[in-house]
# Entry
Amino acid sequence: MGSVAPFVARYEAGIDYLTCTAERGHNVAALLALSEDVLRQEVGAGAILKPWYWQGFGGQQAGGISSGFSGTRAIVRLSGSTARECAAEFIPSADNVSRLDIQLTIRADALGTSHAAKLYESLATRDGRRGRPIARSLIVDSRGGSSLYLGRRISDSYGRIYNKSAEEQKNETPPRWRYEVEYKRKLALAAARAYVGAVEKDTFCAGEVRHWFDRRNCTPPISTIPRLDYCSDARGSDSQSKLVKWLKVTVRPSVQRLALEYGWPDVLALLGVPLAYSDRYVNEVLGAEE
# Structure
């Protein structure tokens, strides 16, 4: 009788949650129009349309989308598969992104049902040899699920690793483990803009999550993925200078050709560049002539 072949690691990645707002008139209109389309799609797929209210906003909720209007501002929340499928459409029309969750879900022989507990113990061992330990907590529930939380909820970034198969009450061997990063405030906005600009969005998400956990000694078992370090280097640093040079040499010619055909406003909107920053972006980064 032959031996059983090992399970090859598989993963999928994407946006799992998005909260964005708009206050400028054209962006408010754009977010609300997009929301209406997605609400109709969710209802068409069997979701129930319900009223939704939150901190002065009033609107509707169906499936993975909640949308509201305050009289001057618009807010949209996307979750689950709706976030993954629609986030790239909403972000360019938002004036701000206050929360963005990015997930990487893995199935591999190396990740058994006790994966979170083993990571927790491993981090405890490392803390004795390193500097200030990262805040962490391990929660095990009665259904066999377990979750490891890294960092503090009030921070601008917060991580969690949990048994996705157990959460969905699916008997899978090996189970699916989800690595998830929750970005808030400035980090959320920076990550959202980078996501919109990424050509391979799932690859961007996988690299972003892997990088975050790798820096905290909880590297997901997938191959290294190049990641643009867009929000941790100081302005004027060597890495920033290299990035700006890359933009001018590699990106600028293509963008300028598109601008001649479509105009700068449309091109910058496609790139996810807020109109308030367009002049500086065009003149300083892309180096367009007046």
